[in-house]
Amino acid sequence: MGLLRDELLKSIWHAFTALDVDQSGKVSKSQLKVLSHSLCTVMKIPHDPVALEQHFKDDDEGPVSNQGYMPYLNRFILDKVRDNFDILEFNNVCWTLCFKKNINMSHLLISNDDAFKVWCIFNFLSEDRYPLVVITEEIEYFLRKLMEDMGGIWNQERFDDYKLTLNRKQQCLSAWELIELVGMGHFSKGMNRQTLSMGISEVFQELILDVLRQGYMMKKGHKRKNWTERWFVLGPNSMSYYVREDLTDKKGEILLDRNCCVESLPDKEGKKCLFIVKCSDKSFEISASDKKRKQEWIQAIQTCIQLLRLGLPAPHLEAKLRRRELRQKQQAEQGELEERMRLLQIANENKHRQLESMRKKLEEAAATATLEEQRRKQTQTDLQDRYRTDLEREKMVRQQMEEQVAQKSSELEQYLQRVRELEDMYHRLEDALEDERQARQDEETMRKLQTRLLEEESAKRAELEQIHLQQQRAISQTQAEKQELESERLAKETALQAAMLQLESLERERHGALEQYEEVRMKLEQAANKTKSWKDKVAKHEGMVRLIQPGDKGPQRMTNWGPAAFTDTELDLRKKSWQEKKNHNQSASSERG
User: Fold this and answer.
1) Does 127 lie in the same domain as 4?
2) Keywords for this entry (predicted)?
């Protein structure tokens, strides 16, 4: 039912958009009334004209959008749809409302009926999103199947060229663009109109009417047992047969279910290429024109029965779902690939930035090294000039004082030694400067460390002061609680002593009550003995001797003439009641105290 609703919505969408003349996305309520009444009539649904007015009573008589019409359409029309109407008639009503406003048939090679069939095929192959379009993969599937049914050869290069022009536009076609593509005969060149019409009809019967196979065969009658030629049409769950191929006079139908089977039969009664279709209620013997068609029919019927057993849809519908699932999978893979490429590009850009940063650092290091080399060369040049001046001076001195050559030679040696010491001192000075710089860095690090330690120490000190304050408050609170507990203990001891005194008083009263009970019991025994001796005297005096007979087994009551006036159970109850009253009086007196 969900697939049927989707297909119905596609046709209704075409009709709704056709009523939207100014393409504002809204249609007047008067037009929607006509559309709703037509839909209810063709789908055999009771139409309620008041429901539309009540549903849109807050719209102030204005036009209604597609989104606004959808709740009414779902509730009052589509939710009541059953499969008891002719879906072709429904599609024809929607087609009649929309085709004249969207396409001009005068320049096309196909008839209005063929255009209607292409429109139905478009609705079947289109994507489940609005506005409705059919993508290039489904266009290729439809055109390839059309060429096969026309007996033509599929030209893949021509379609690839057309797909390139299509990709530059929008990569999909609307229903009217698809009708114009087929009607212009771009992919059916060399075919006449009749052949193109027959090809469209065969594709329409397969995809829309669920016709899996059709053709003339001989069928054996059930009553007269005669053989008659019939035009058979095989669907997903039935096999209908007609007088002619125009499907006007239907003679019967073979209902297929999961319990049916088809078997080949040997030739008999002058008929060849026989097979039988066995159903639960009856069987049908059929004769094909040749062995090839016989095998093809058997295979097609077995395929239908197998699909019914597996609960699968028709082959073309299942193929459509597989193609859609494959496209969704490819789109998901394409999206995943694009995401990977994007991540790789980001990683490449990051790597490029890192390399650029490293290059700049290397250039800066090279510039620093060059500057240091220039400084070193300048220092060496200065030293060389200095050495040169000293040597010239020494030369002048040596020339002037040839007689003191030995002395000057020793001074020269001393001077050279001093130069070496200066160079050594220069290198040591550079090392000392480096050590000083490192020491300053270490001193800065230690200063930061000391600062952090001081901060941590101050935080710990504040925390300890907080803990100390909490301990002081806890100690003061504990002392207060201790004093309160001591006062409670003293009060409880006082109450305990009072309770002990009351208990001793109750004990004394209990002993007194027991003594009174013993006195009463002794008096009752004495009275019983006196009563018994008195009765014996009366019996002897009157001379009446009676036999002792079994008496009542129930509890004996004691009277003034026998053993006591009460039974033991009644006496215990009276004792218990007396004790409870006494305890109640004592507890009341203690509460008042």
Assistant:
1) yes
2) Cell membrane, Cell projection, Coiled coil, Cytoplasm, DNA-binding, Membrane, Nucleus, Phosphoprotein
In angstroms, the CA 305 to CA 295 distance is 15
Closest CA to 104 of 93, 91, 115, 118: 115
- Which pLDDT does position 217 carry in this prediction? 93
Based on the domain organization, do 264 and 180 belong to the same domain? no
Report the pLDDT value the prediction gives residue 590, as an integer from 0 to 100.
Answer: 65
CA distances, 92 to each of 119, 125, 551, 593 (Å): 10, 18, 110, 105
Given a contact cutoff of 8 angstroms between Cβ atoms, the answer to whether 52 and 35 are in contact is no
Show the tokens assigned to 283. 């069987």
Rounded alpha-carbon distances, angstroms, from residue 419 to 386, 388, 425: 10, 12, 10
Mean pLDDT of the region 85-98: 86
Query: Domain range holding 465?
Result: 447-478
pLDDT of 428: 87
pLDDT of residue 287: 92
Q: Are 175 and 122 in contact (CB under 8 A)?
A: yes
* Cα 227 to Cα 28, 230, 231, 544, distances in angstroms: 59, 10, 13, 128
The pLDDT assigned to 57 comes to 65
pLDDT at 211: 83
In three-state form (DSSP H/G/I as H, E/B as E, the rest C), the secondary structure along 35-71 is: HHHHHHHHCCCCCCHHHHHHHCCCCCCCCEEHHHHHH
Q: Which amino acid is at 209?
A: L
Q: Are 139 and 178 in contact (CB under 8 A)?
A: yes
When divided into structural domains, the chain yields a total of: 3
276 touches 206 (CB < 8 A): no
Is residue 24 within 8 Å of 63, Cβ to Cβ? yes
Over the chain, what is the mean pLDDT?
81
What would the two tokens of residue 562 be? 């026998």
- CATH number of the domain within which 228 lies: 2.30.29.30
CA-CA distances (angstroms) from residue 4 to 1, 7, 78?
A: 5, 5, 10
Beta strands per DSSP E along 38-176: 64-65, 134-135, 172-173
76: its two tokens: 């009052």
Gap between the Cα atoms of 590 and 504, Å rounded: 13
- Read off the pLDDT of residues 206-216 as tens digits, 9 standing for 90 and up: 788 778 888 89
CB burial readout 58-95, b (16+ within 10 A) else e: eeeeebbebebbbebbeebbbeebeeeeebeebbbbbb
Q: Are residues 179 and 62 in the same domain?
A: yes
Instruction: Of 275-279, 434-438, 462-466, give the range with the top mean pLDDT.
Output: 275-279
The SS3 assignment for 240 reads: strand
Contacts of 37 (CB under 8 A, 6+ apart): 47, 49
Q: Is 19 left (phi over 0), alpha (psi -120 to 50) or beta?
A: alpha
Residue 131 DSSP symbol: S
pLDDT tens column, 488-546? 888 888 888 887 888 888 888 888 778 887 887 888 878 777 777 766 766 666 554 44
